[in-house]
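Summary of Year 1 activities. Much of the first year was spent building the evaluation harness for sequence design. The harness presents a backbone, in tokenized form, and records the residue chosen at every position. We chose the following record to illustrate the format because it has been used consistently in internal testing since the harness was completed.
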């Protein structure tokens, strides 16, 4: 096949990786010297919401009363302009025991888990996301997802560091090619917030592996260009939206220059943990690379803040279809009331609940995993009881690369001759004529 890459602009940053121990994702301040981006990002003619600074423009975003009170208490030197600057949010992430101690009343177990921390997954919480955490209640859902506990270090039967077998489906570094027509491109391993149940805990945030190197990214894009069956590329990581605008646009532009790539998706938690990242400028960039869809990682209705609603509105207004991927987590969102509040709230901010994942058996995840019966119970409690668009597909991502397997409550209760016996959402019994192929009268006319 023709080498599509021969016509691609090679004037790219030497690296999209920042220093291994940097607090910030790759960006102009992270050692990149020769970024050449085309076309240039044009600022809006009139942007009444922008607050100019000497360095860069920081768009305003709604700040909820709760977050503002948190800012005043724990970052009194920071103004709203700082708070709304996603780079400031990165620089001031909560990353240590003294940081946590200052903000939350820690349990002995949390404290010991942080002091004894080992393994690849670091601690990281943006000030914004920290403002949503209950300082007094260790059982609060959001708190449990980001503050370590000792259960993280207990490896149970069936758990693995790479439960999905991604490493064995990787023809080139940073790329997973498991399904025939689509690939997963892991563009960074930086996340502004680290979820304690992360399927990629083996790699996200690891020292020295924060971002894919330019050389590896080039090889991954070369692979896609040389593989015409690939029509769909999912950017993931880490969090692709933690890259700065220039690097993200460089990747999108390169992918769009490959004729057989029909569809680009981005998986991200940034709009939820760092809604300040969803600037109007970013939305304009993304809009240039349609069809582009986005899967957002929501966990709990406490994440549905005014800031997140505004960030999602910017994305939706840019024409990006938004879906939510939610992991079912024990004691966090594994009850019908919480899940109903989440899916209803998502529809209100134009996000379609897409997948509900059974938690992957990542090492040290037993305190997060529910019985599968719990997920089925939640789906049964939603189906028929609320809007169909609000109901995600419940899946197990099968270990060792088996792919997503959908699970649904069984509404077929039996058969009576040529009738199928069904039960509806309200446990009503129904018959549906479903003659067996061998039954008389089934021949076509
Ligand atoms: S945002 Fe996604 S990739 Fe990052 S730590 Fe959370 S689950 Fe892992």
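For this record, the design step produced the sequence shown next.
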């Amino acid at each position: 096949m023709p080498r599509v890459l021969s016509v691609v602009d090679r004037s790219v940053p030497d690296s999209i990786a920042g220093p291994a121990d940097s607090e910030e994702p790759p960006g102009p301040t992270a050692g990149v010297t020769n970024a050449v981006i085309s076309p240039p990002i044009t600022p809006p003619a009139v942007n009444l919401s922008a607050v100019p600074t000497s360095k860069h423009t920081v768009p305003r975003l709604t700040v909820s009363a709760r977050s503002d009170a948190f800012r005043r208490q724990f970052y009194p030197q920071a103004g709203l302009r700082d708070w709304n600057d996603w780079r400031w949010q990165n620089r001031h992430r909560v990353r240590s025991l003294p940081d946590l101690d200052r903000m939350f009343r820690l349990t002995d177990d949390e404290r010991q888990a942080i002091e004894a921390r080992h393994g690849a997954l670091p601690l990281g919480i943006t000030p914004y996301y920290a403002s949503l955490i209950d300082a007094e209640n260790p059982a609060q859902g959001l708190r449990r997802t980001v503050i370590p506990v000792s259960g993280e270090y207990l490896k149970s039967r069936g758990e693995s560091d790479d439960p999905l077998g991604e490493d064995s489906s990787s023809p080139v570094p940073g790329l997973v090619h498991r399904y025939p027509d689509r690939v997963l491109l892991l563009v960074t391993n930086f996340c502004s917030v680290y979820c304690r149940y992360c399927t990629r805990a083996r790699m996200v945030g690891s020292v020295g592996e924060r971002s894919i190197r330019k050389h590896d990214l080039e090889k991954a894009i070369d692979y896609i260009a040389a593989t015409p069956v690939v029509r769909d590329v999912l950017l993931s990581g880490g969090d692709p939206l933690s890259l700065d605008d220039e690097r993200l646009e460089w990747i999108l532009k390169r992918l769009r220059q490959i004729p057989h790539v029909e569809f680009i998706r981005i998986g991200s938690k940034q709009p939820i943990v760092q809604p300040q990242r969803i600037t109007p400028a970013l939305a304009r960039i993304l809009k240039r690379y349609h069809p582009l869809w986005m899967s957002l990682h929501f966990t709990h209705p406490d994440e549905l803040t005014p800031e997140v609603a505004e960030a999602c509105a910017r994305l939706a207004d840019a024409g990006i279809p938004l879906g939510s991927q939610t992991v079912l987590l024990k004691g966090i969102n594994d009850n019908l009331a919480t899940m109903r509040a989440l899916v209803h709230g998502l529809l209100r901010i134009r996000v379609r609940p897409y997948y509900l994942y059974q938690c992957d058996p990542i090492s040290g995840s037993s305190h997060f995993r529910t019985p599968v019966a719990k997920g089925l119970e939640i789906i049964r409690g939603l189906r028929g009881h609320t809007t169909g668009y609000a109901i995600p597909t419940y899946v197990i991502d099968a270990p060792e690369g088996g792919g997503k397997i959908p699970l649904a409550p069984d509404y077929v209760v039996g058969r009576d001759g040529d009738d199928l016996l069904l039960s509806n959402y309200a446990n009503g019994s129904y018959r549906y004529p479903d003659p067996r192929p061998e039954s008389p009268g089934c021949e076509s006319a």
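Residues 63 and 80 are 8 Å apart (CA to CA). Quantitative recovery figures across the full test set are reported in Table 2.
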